[in-house]
Amino acid sequence: MPPTAPATSSRRPAAETAARPGRAARAPSTCANTHLRGVLVRSRLRAGAVPRKEPARQCRKKRDDRVQMQKTALDDLDRSILHALQISPRASWTAVGRVLGVDAVTAARRWDRLRSTGRAWTTCYPGVRLIGASFTAYVEIDVQSGRAMDVARALAAHPQVVTVEHLAGGRDLLVMVLVQDLGALSELITEHISALPGVARTRAALATRVFSEGSRWRLRSLTPAQQRQLTRPATDQPRTELDEHDHRLITALSRDARAPAVELARETGLSAPNVRRRIAGLMHRGDAVLRCEIARDLTEWPVAATLWASVPPGEIDKVAQGLSALPELRMCSSVTGPHNLLFTLWLKSVADLARLETLLADRLPQLQLVDRAVTLRLVKLMGKLLDERGRATGTVPINPWLPPGA
């Protein structure tokens, strides 16, 4: 039997493989990679280095971030539902679904999700006729360093304080208040605003006329035809004096303007049919405003700016009309004080403010801008308490009929 040749390996040593010209070196085997990684990790741990996160953990974190983003972002249907409720805050889900081409259950479920997370809400507050019979003022407040949010939260607890904003530029806080008479305004400012710890100085300007306010602002998601389907024709309503039941109804609606009539009846002591009649009358007479609102950072206009301007008295109506044509306009009011016009814009960015100012200078040369401030945080908006992300967390109903401090 011939001797057997010694077995030879088909695998060449790494050094030999690398030395052969014209052939690329092979990568180390998987086992070798694993062994080397283990050696490196052990050496890093001995040196006190912090190990990197495992790839699986990183994947889970990215997935969780995507899920969270999906939960907070708005899709086209969300925006359409919100636009529909901006037009008709108490529209039935059947009516909303018919206009949007979805079933009522889907529309209701989407709204419940938005409302429960504080991303959208409805509220109610006294309308133009009541505001005209009352007194609206804008109070600028300077505070001691580091006390802005303490003062803002304390102010937000007052039912006569409608809106509280923390601003960058010229003043620390801007507060809108609504009271029954000038004496109540004096008491509110001197005894309940200026007396707060941390308040350094206040300046107040009375609104002489409100040309536009936030309930008229729209998301622009629906077609004109869809908007017409949701718009109710105006009907003549006899002017009547509001009674205590109306006051209680407006207060109840401020918590949830879509609350069922049966629920509102229990809260106000009225019958459900009476509640429905009173709500219709309040809305058509302009005694109450029902409003659907959305967290600003979820829109295309996440930045808010307030501007002060001077306009010749004879031109102020024309200028206000021109401002009202701007889709960015949220509020416009003539005021007392050194500057006679105050208005608020929602913008796509801080830089967008310069574009708007250039546009206004071209379209409305009689408008002289004298100051502007960007909102850093909205603490309270028309009675709704908001967190640092602008989500609704609670309600302090607007009640100008209460004495200050009540």
Give an overview in words.
The chain is globular. The strands form two sheets. An eight-stranded antiparallel barrel has the order 2-4-3-10-7-9-8-5, surrounded by four helices. Strands 1-6 form a two-stranded antiparallel sheet. Among the domains are: 74-116, Arc Repressor Mutant, subunit A (Orthogonal Bundle); 129-216 and 296-395, Alpha-Beta Plaits, CATH 3.30.70. Strand 11 (384-386) and strand 12 form a beta hairpin. Helices cover 40% and strands 23% of the residues. Helix 4 packs across helix 6 and helix 12 (261-268) crosses helix 13 (272-285). The longest helix is centred in the N-terminal third of the chain and has 18 residues, at 55-72. It is an alpha+beta fold. The chain has helices spanning 14-19, 30-46, 55-72, 76-87, 93-100, 104-116, 128-133, 148-156, 182-193, 224-230, 244-255, 261-268, 272-285, 316-324, 352-363, and strands at 120-126, 135-143, 161-168, 173-179, 199-212, 288-294, 303-310, 329-335, 341-347, 368-381, 384-386, 392-395. Residues 223-234 have a biased composition (Polar residues). It comes from Saccharopolyspora hirsuta. Residues 7-29 have a biased composition (Low complexity). It holds the Pfam family AsnC_trans_reg.
Structure in a nutshell:
With 406 residues, the protein is of the alpha+beta class. The chain contains 15 helices and 12 strands.
Give the helices and strands, then pairings.
Layout lengths: L13 H6 L10 H17 L8 H18 L3 H12 L5 H8 L3 H13 L3 E7 L1 H6 L1 E9 L4 H9 L4 E8 L4 E7 L2 H12 L5 E14 L11 H7 L13 H12 L5 H8 L3 H14 L2 E7 L8 E8 L5 H9 L4 E7 L5 E7 L4 H12 L4 E14 L2 E3 L5 E4 L11
Antiparallel strand pairs: 1-6, 2-4, 2-5, 3-4, 3-10, 5-8, 7-9, 7-10, 8-9, 10-11, 11-12
Helix pairs in contact: 4-6, 5-6, 12-13
Organism: Saccharopolyspora hirsuta
Protein name: Lrp/AsnC family transcriptional regulator
GO molecular function, one term: sequence-specific DNA binding
